[in-house]
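Input set for joint prediction.
Command: fold jointly, output tokens.
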Amino acid sequence: MLIVQKYGGTSVANTGRIKAVAERVVAAAKQGHQVIVVVSAMSGETDKLIRLAHEISDRPDDREMDMLLSSGERVTIALTAIAIQKLGHKSMSFTGRQVGIITDSVHTKAMIERIEANRLKIALDEGKIPVVAGFQGIDEFSDVTTLGRGGSDTTAVAIAAALKADLCEIYTDVEGVYTTDPRIVKEARKLGKISYDEMLEMASLGARVLHGRSVEFAKKYNVPLVVRSSFNYAPGTLVVKEDEDMEKIVVSGVAADKNQVRITIMAVPDKPGIAASIFNEIASANIVVDMIVQNISSDGNATDMSFTVSKADSKKALEIAKSVSDKLGAKGVNMNTDVAKVSIVGVGMVSHFGVAAKMFETFAKEGINIMMISTSEIKVSCVIDVKHTERAVQVLHDIFGLAAA
Amino acid sequence: MLIVQKYGGTSVANTGRIKAVAERVVAAAKQGHQVIVVVSAMSGETDKLIRLAHEISDRPDDREMDMLLSSGERVTIALTAIAIQKLGHKSMSFTGRQVGIITDSVHTKAMIERIEANRLKIALDEGKIPVVAGFQGIDEFSDVTTLGRGGSDTTAVAIAAALKADLCEIYTDVEGVYTTDPRIVKEARKLGKISYDEMLEMASLGARVLHGRSVEFAKKYNVPLVVRSSFNYAPGTLVVKEDEDMEKIVVSGVAADKNQVRITIMAVPDKPGIAASIFNEIASANIVVDMIVQNISSDGNATDMSFTVSKADSKKALEIAKSVSDKLGAKGVNMNTDVAKVSIVGVGMVSHFGVAAKMFETFAKEGINIMMISTSEIKVSCVIDVKHTERAVQVLHDIFGLAAA
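tokens >
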């Protein structure tokens, strides 16, 4: 088999951990597999670099941030290759550029356009274990780009897709995908299998085990994913196409995301094209908007427009919202940073009525006020006050019977 | 003027220092100069990375070490560009690859073959201050290479030569080139001017203000160099072609180098081609030999061959010496790590007799035993026991009257 193994920051946090990873990689090679390793920066490194940049400027340039942050993975690829060589196996490190990961030029959140992968094929043919820097690529100007937080997952899946790998293993510090965050709900249960779609919703909802784009990629190219721990040998969670075997439970998971802020533009005069004028400007600043809710304003002739963005984008988004508000003659803008998004996800929801209603009813009983609602075929999300997050997750986990194995 | 400014590790040791560097750079730009900045890794970073590699392997692969170490400069170029932008000036960071620094493939001590510099010219034309990663380049395989310790000086001079800059300023934590190490001799005096040749000897002798190759480059392309402090505005030392104005003192400096070991192959059977067979093998391992001394052995039919190499190369060199010794039927090999090389340098020595004799006489009076001697037109070096280093430097500095201004 050709296996791509991706190790996250906690899995390569120090030289002891890197040696353990090398042992795992070499063990797979000794079983006769061809292995490609993708690694993240050592945990804490990326945050340290961001802190340094912010000591210098509160709005550092995106291109320079990519140059800065891409240094972290260079350290781990070199150390991991050295550790594999030390075990007597041939190995060679590669940057994003060297394996030909070509992206667009949207610095700090670039999208992969294609992977050339010639050097990877040559290295495999020579019996080497290639160790590839996750999270990074280059654009058409030969400038370094990064794929955004969690981008190493996407690197791994994209390489697996490009080389038609049989399996992509995502090694992390948890044993798989759980029905909810085990730190919040102690009865949380590890799922044996989950569909790409469910995983996509879970990922976008703040269940931080897998980067959303990596799941999209895996779904598009039908790459079988396994999420498992690099700290033990427990079987992980398989992420695959929805199939007949898949547990047909209505709700398969509860997710919480505290990394969002809600921005509201108040009393926007109600006429066509307003939403477009707001969200075009935000999109052109390369900010991803998550939920959007439009309500009739209290006086009836205007509209309150609320949306959520990640905390990292909140400053930029707030500035844009203010300028749009002035332009449209709205009443003003407010931002609420004390919010959380709590969601339920499940492929079974498509064919079951009343799931959303049951969620709202549960919140009502608990006295948890809902600020925004957004639904898709297989999920329901509510924005609530951040202080209720843990309780909300716990009661939903109970009410939908997720602890029962 | 077009000025290349190079800032070493202590000059960019933290974000406070990086901001100070940015101010200095922008001040030069405001005076109407075009400025290109070259930076090293933050001080301590390179040693930290080497330590991590050695935690994993005692003989890490050279290619992987280059991948590892080249990460340090990426951090400083990005942070420095951000700091310059913060002061309202346009700036852009460049890796060795991005400015087209093409080297040979001798990892960890690569030599620059050419510099393309197209992107630097474009950036300057756009009014940007380019910030370039020192110490690194790429080879013909597109693999990352590094130029060895102090290689950032060479990067700066090579760029200055390629772009025909008017001046190359080397910023460091000392105010210039001294008659000897001021930490050893408190009367040490800063030189206003020194010739390329003298500086070359001083550099190769362990006066660590300038990387030897950078001075060769500067001499070859006639790039005026200034060595000065980034911590104050004191005028530095100008390194230029020898001219009439130059102080015609006999000895202009005393240097000490403790970073060497002496290896002796004992009683090599005395026949032609011996030196070649030893030093060809060492050269093909990419080890630079410094001094070589051949003596008649005590029994008259054999030769003792001694040479010095840097401590970093001592393990490899010792292995080679042992295998050569076996092959040639020599008596064996010994290595002495407790040695130092103490040297006097000066263009005036060419036309003065007795300078070397005065040095040996001084050592004799002080009871300092000389183990090896090597001379060139403008320097005399002696290898002595490391414990005498400081005293040797002090007495030479006194006897040659260097303290007198």
